[in-house]
Structure formats: C-alpha cells, structure tokens
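Hi L., both proteins are below.
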Amino acid sequence: MGSTHLRGYGLALVAAALWATLGLFYHQLAAYGLSLLTIVFFRAAIAALLLFAVLGVRSPDSLKLRGRDWLLFAVFGLVGVAAFFAIYIHAIDLTGMGVAAVLMYTAPVWVALIGAVSLHEPFTLRKSGALVLAVTGCALVGRVYDLASVRLNLVGILAGLGAGLTYGLYTVFSKIAQRRHTAWATLAYALGLGTLFMLPLQTPAELARAVASPPTIIWLIALGIVPTLGGGLAFNAALRLIPASNASIIATLEPVIAALLGWTFLGERMVPLQLLGTALVLSAVLILQRHLANERSTP
C-alpha cells in the first residue's frame, strides 16, 4: 500500500475516533437541559464560524465560489448537514442510540452504490464482503439483538435509514466539492449553509439557554472544535486520498470506538457479542486495506 493511501486510511480512522466522542458531548450537554436540535445547531455554527474566520485571514481566495458552486453547497448544506443532523436526532429519539447508529451506518452501502454510479469507483466482490461485515458488526455493537432494550417502529426505522442516506450523501458531496475546493473551504460552506437551514428549527428560549452559563458555552465550543471541526477536516482530507466508499467503511469504526469510550468513561458494559461486532468491523477495514494493496501490486 502506498504512503498516500495509508495516510488516507489513517485520516479516516482519526475522523472516526473524533466523531466517536460525540456521545460524550451530547450526554454532558443534555444534562444541562439543552435540546438535541439546539446542540447540533451550535455544533455546526461554531465550527463554521471558526473555519470562516481562519480562512478569511489565512486563505481568503479559497472562499471564492462560482455560480454553480453555490447550488452544490446549498444542497450539500441542506441534505448532508441540516437534514442529516435533524433526521439522525429523531432516529435516536424514536429507536434508541444503538439502533439509530446501526441504521445510520448503512451509509457505506449508499456510498458504494452512489460512488459506483456517479464517481466511477469499482464495486468489487471483496468490497461487498467488507460492507456486509461492517454493517453486521455495527448491528452487534449497537445490540440490536437485545429486543428488550430496543424500540422499533416504522417511522424510527425510516428515520434511521434516512440518516444513513443523508450521511452517505455527505460523503459523496464532500468528494465532489473537493474536486475544485480545499477540504477546509468545503467543510466551511457545508456547515455554514447547514447552520442557516437549521436556524428555523430553533426557538429564542433554547438559544438563550445554550449561552446562559459558562459551562454550556465551553462544552459547545469543544463540541464544535473536537468532533465537528477535527473530524470533518480529517474525513475530508481522507476523501482526497482514498475512494469515498473505502473512507465510509473505515468510518464504521466510529460506533466501535464510541462503545469503548462509553465503557471507559460512562461505565457502559460491553458484552461478548459487542466484542464480536468490534472484530467484524476491524475485519472489514483489514479486508479493504489488503484489497487496495493487491490492486496496487497488480501490473
């Protein structure tokens, strides 16, 4: 495997690790009484403001858009950010965190299918096997087999699948946008326009509550910087180096890492089947790495 592709896989792994901390931030901020929609609004808004501030000083030329770019980023912000954030939160509320995470991580399937059609990425038998392993592993990590703790309903399932589709479209839009723009500018406009689309979902009372105390402000800023800004930039950088479908499968490590963080910091237990799920996701990643290595060694 070449160093460029190895760096791409490493960046996708960093993104998954940073995104895995989202549950810790949500847990803490929800304890302060903030609504989930308000939390994700500030998540996008703070990251976008920081990105535009840095780019405005260090690289103002990278923020220049042509007419057709505005349409691309408007759809990106609406579907890949605002719709994804809002739909995923409702999926969590309707089905629970574990099931919602598993349904969201049908995203690699969507990305592989869309990538094969629109980005001309190969959809091989080995990649198909990696997809099956990754989705099955996520299901075990999310404990969807524990029917006593799972709340299933049609609207919740559709919301979870919608989160997977919009998350997959986030990946595809990022890949397309970075053909003409930097990873930083791509994320800035996606989050910025996504913030504007989420603004009508807020109430003055909720916005005021979010900035009423120093602890909530500090946690919101950290949420905007660590998983949102850090994870987004790492993932966008990975998309410049490896296929979108491969990056999306690597990102399925997120619920695995999140489960480990929950076990470490929140006292959440990991049962044997969750450990098996972890092994399946890691196997999917290793299959992809070996697949890419074989492709590069073939004359």
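That was the first. Here is the second:
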Amino acid sequence: MNLAAVDRYISKVITSESQTFPFPEDTKLKVGVDLGTAYIVIVVLDEKDNPIACEKRAARVLRDGVVVDYVGACSIVKELKAKLEERIGTELTECAIAMPAGTESSVKTHMYVVENSGMRVIRILDEPTAANAIYKITDGAIVDIGGGTTGLAIFKDGKVIRTEDEATGGYHLSLVLAGSMEITLDEAEQIKMNYARHQEILPVIRPVIEKMAAITKKYIDPEETKTVYLCGGTCCMTNIEKIFEKQLGITTVKATDPFLVTPTGIAVNCVPETEQ
C-alpha cells in the first residue's frame, strides 16, 4: 500500500465536504452510500474517481450494521442526497452500498432505505472489500472498525479469501467511557473525538480496543497474513494501530484519517459488477 498516496487522496475527499470540485458535464458520477452505526455518509466521485463532494451526518439509526430506525434512516439519506444535488447541480440516480460481513439478511432493508431517496443500488459490497478500493492491497487483512462492528477481509493474491464481522465498535468505546466518567453517551462521543484527550482516555477504553484486536486475531494466520490495514471511524483513535500490533504480533498500519476510506471505496465501486 502506498500510504502517502492514500493520505493525499483521502485529504481531497475530506476537502470535498466543504468544497465542491468541478467535473465535466458528460461524466458519469459515482456515488457511495455508507449507512453506519455512528454516521451516514455519501461520497460523490467522477468516473475517474476524482472527489466531487461529500456529505455526512451523525446518526443512531443503525445498530451493529442493522437498520433499527427505518424512517430516520430514510430521512437522513434523503437530506444528504438533496444537499449534494444542490451543491453539484445534478440529480444522483445510482449508487453503491456496503454491508458489514454477516449482515446479509439486512441487505434488502439497506437497499430500501437508499432507494427511498430516488437512487438505484447497482452494487453491494462488504465493507472491508470496499475499503480495499482505496488501500489496493494484494495480500494482508483489512480491518474496518465502525461504530458498531469490527469487520475484516483477508486478501491473498488480490482476492478475498475470508470475511468476518463481530459486534464491537466505537459505540462500545463510548459506552465504557460514559460509564467510567459518569457522563452521557453524547458527552463521551465528544470526548472520544477530541484528539487532545486521547491519551487521557486510553487507559479506560484500551480493554475494548484489545477486544477488537482479539476478534481480528481469531481469524488471521500470522504465517499467511503479514500486515493488517486498519480503517473506519473508530481507527481515528490515536495509536490504535500500536495496540493492534502488540496484540497481534503483526505489522499494523492505517491511513492518517481512516474515517472516509470505506465510504470512498464504496463510491469507487459504483459500477455494475460485470464491468469490474
């Protein structure tokens, strides 16, 4: 993985949250919708995967990758889509989505949420595989830690040979932090997102991070997997890769800002599977 190139690319995606980039009139836009436990994100790229615009909103309409507030999820996706269409001046008609591994039974609900906004879902992926559209690894494991789950995909010779997902994510970090500090969940979320307080809270949340590493360790063979690549919002936690590396005994790396890796990878894959 060319980490510097990934960081430059994701930096431009982050910029597209506040700045709309121009694109040729005849380009076919690629849209990725990420229905996450903590955030819903929509990323728009041009057909050459250049970032155009991005919108996100904090939400608690999913739990462990499953929609628990259908009306709320539909409303947020519609809102974000409308904002993007106003920004770029054109209608968004097609998109790709991604699911945590093991939540295949919820695929139709995710599709209904997105299609309720007027977009047609043309591609469905698992989240770590979507992230690999950005990381572009051929061998190793991508671990995507979102708000509700820790999911991984193991790659060998550029192909996915295994996917797994278990229910431990950023939401669980916040629960532990809120209980320890006797504060609300919202207050815990704000503290967790404050990089200046990461060293302060690390002793409290470290056992949960170690559980995420233990989930990963169950499914990887250190003889076969030489590097683990982290992504997902929870991996924004300072030095989380060092904790994983110590627990796994395997080199562990992440992008400087891993939050938008998966949503952007979903957008990159917004083409029919037959065209891949």
